[in-house]
Amino acid sequence: MSSDNLVDAYCGADIFTFASVTETQGIVLVEAMAAGLPPVVVRATGSQEMVEHEKQGLVVEYNLDMFAQQVLRLLRDDELRHRFSAQAVIRASELSSRTMARRLERQYQLLIDEGKVKGSRHLFEKWRSG
Question: Domains (ranges, CATH) in the chain?
Answer without folding.
Answer: 3-95 (3.40.50.2000), 97-130 (no CATH)
